[in-house]
């Protein structure tokens, strides 16, 4: 689709950072970062939430001017310069973890926002052609039309549109595409299509910065891996020189090595009687961790939403909640963007914090501080706005909000999107510990490794349950078989 200047063998970097620093008051978000990105490279940028990855890519794409240090761009004709205008002329595109599409606009109308040449008579036809060709090349059989309103698309489809827009042809061809957690809402089959396209794009002379907490994907596409911690690059070498364990060691552990002895109770000891049954046939028992799997967009999220709405909303359910919810699409269903981190975290727990009609501030702060420590939310002040956090840390707040409630059932719609590998392991231990105390979990995830943490798994296909798996039958092979087995049979 696009080729970098000089082809994949070129040694001239598209972007070169030298000693780049970004300070927000006393906070050093970026602390002396130096790196280069050359045509043909796919650089895996790895680090825990809050390590400085998002700040680094915003410096690279021209969205942030470094407090000190320099950023230099080399255009296709060899011209060298700095600043946001040079970043655009260099063909740098960004696909952010927090999707930036306008929900009230169509797919092709959204393309006009980054593609400034789409003006004048006939621009809609041009835009429709560009986005359709990109979708067809990256995601065959996507079934997304240019005239569809973005707000009517599923989360996975919106992510596919944003990715396609990042690679789409334009007046300035894409030469460096920054992908920030690009597969966080995609199922395994669609994610594989994207990874294949990344390899093709780089083989044709393009460059990619690939940010992901899914380390298997990073090893699959990256030619080089740069590890960030506390705003610095602490390791940079060819991907082949890392192993998964050495990469985790380089990142540094943020989670406890092991939960307290006896904290997780074996499933046979903790699972009790049935506590829910839905019209789709979804069932769960007290203390059970039930997974929902299958290709994205096949009814899992809708089933969770219907169940949640059926058990919430009443006055009694506000005071004594029956179910808590962890949103996967945090921008739409999760965070209150004008509220503080603390208020977002304690929202579902407020009834228990009220005395004489007023919230007891000391009790609220104590609850927030406890969960900040338990789940590792990276902030100096819980009174900061929720949007001051990275995407992964916002997701931690939503996860803490649900577990802080007294609800006996927790519904989780892909709750680990954008959360680092260390915190994921700690969260898994928390879920098992809470299940041991009798709490029930309904857990939809696009990650097979997460689904395999469950006691029982329902695989969805075309809005219906196509398989129920338990024990050793819960594995990737069986989940994929059940995901595809109804395809083409008229079901």
UniProtKB/TrEMBL annotation:
Keyword Transport: yes
GO MF annotations in UniProt: ATP binding
Name the UniProt record assigns to this protein: Sugar ABC transporter ATP-binding protein
Source taxon at top rank: Bacteria
Family membership noted in the UniProt record: Belongs to the ABC transporter superfamily.
Pfam families on file: ABC_tran (PF00005)
Keyword line: ATP-binding, Nucleotide-binding, Repeat, Sugar transport, Transport
Limits of the ABC transporter domain: 12-255, 259-487
Keyword Repeat on entry: yes
Species whose genome carries this gene: Roseibium litorale
SUPFAM superfamilies hit by this protein: P-loop containing nucleoside triphosphate hydrolases
């Amino acid at each position: 689709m696009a080729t970098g200047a000089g082809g994949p063998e070129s040694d001239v970097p598209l972007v070169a950072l030298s000693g780049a620093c970004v300070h927000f008051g006393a906070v050093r978000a970026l602390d002396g970062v130096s790196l280069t990105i050359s045509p043909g490279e796919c650089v895996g940028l790895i680090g825990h939430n809050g390590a400085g990855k998002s700040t680094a890519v915003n410096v690279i794409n021209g969205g942030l001017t470094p407090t000190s240090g320099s950023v230099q761009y080399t255009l296709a004709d060899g011209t060298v310069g700095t600043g946001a205008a040079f970043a655009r002329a260099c063909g740098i595109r960004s696909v952010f973890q927090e999707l930036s599409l306008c929900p009230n606009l169509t797919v092709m109308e959204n393309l006009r926002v980054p593609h400034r040449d789409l003006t004048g008579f006939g621009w809609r036809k041009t835009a429709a052609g560009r986005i359709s060709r990109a979708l067809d090349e990256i995601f065959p059989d996507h079934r997304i039309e240019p005239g569809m309103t973005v707000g009517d698309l599923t989360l996975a489809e919106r992510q596919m549109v944003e990715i396609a827009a990042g690679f789409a042809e334009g007046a300035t061809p894409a030469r460096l595409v920054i992908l920030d957690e690009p597969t966080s809402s995609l199922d395994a089959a669609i994610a594989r299509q994207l990874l294949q396209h990344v390899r093709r794009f780089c083989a044709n002379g393009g460059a990619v910065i690939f940010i992901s907490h899914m380390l298997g994907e990073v090893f699959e596409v990256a030619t080089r891996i740069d590890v960030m911690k506390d705003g610095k690059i602490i390791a940079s070498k060819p991907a082949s020189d890392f192993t998964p364990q050495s990469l985790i060691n380089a990142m540094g552990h943020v989670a406890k090595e092991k939960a307290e002895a006896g904290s997780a109770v074996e499933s046979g000891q903790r699972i009790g009687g049935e506590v829910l049954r839905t019209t789709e046939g979804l069932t769960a028992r007290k203390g059970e961790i039930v997974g929902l799997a299958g290709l994205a967009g096949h009814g899992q999220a809708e089933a969770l939403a219907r169940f949640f709405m059926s058990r919430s909303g009443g006055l009694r359910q506000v005071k004594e909640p029956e179910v808590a919810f962890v949103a996967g699409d945090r921008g739409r269903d999760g965070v209150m963007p004008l509220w503080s981190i603390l208020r977002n975290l304690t929202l579902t727990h407020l009834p228990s914090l009220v005395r004489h009609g007023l919230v007891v501030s000391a009790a609220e702060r104590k609850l927030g501080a406890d969960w900040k420590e338990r789940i590792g939310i990276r902030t100096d002040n819980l009174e900061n706005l929720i949007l001051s956090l990275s995407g992964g840390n916002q997701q931690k707040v939503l996860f803490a909000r649900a577990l802080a409630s007294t609800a006996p059932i927790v519904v989780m719609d892909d709750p680990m999107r954008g959360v680092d590998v260390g915190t994921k392991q700690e969260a898994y231990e928390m879920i098992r510990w809470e299940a041991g105390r009798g709490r029930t979990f309904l857990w939809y995830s696009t990650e097979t490794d997460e689904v395999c943490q469950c006691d029982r798994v329902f695989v969805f296909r075309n809005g219906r349950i196509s398989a129920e798996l338990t024990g050793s039958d819960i594995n990737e092979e069986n989940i994929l078989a059940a995901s595809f087995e109804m395809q083409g049979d008229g079901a």
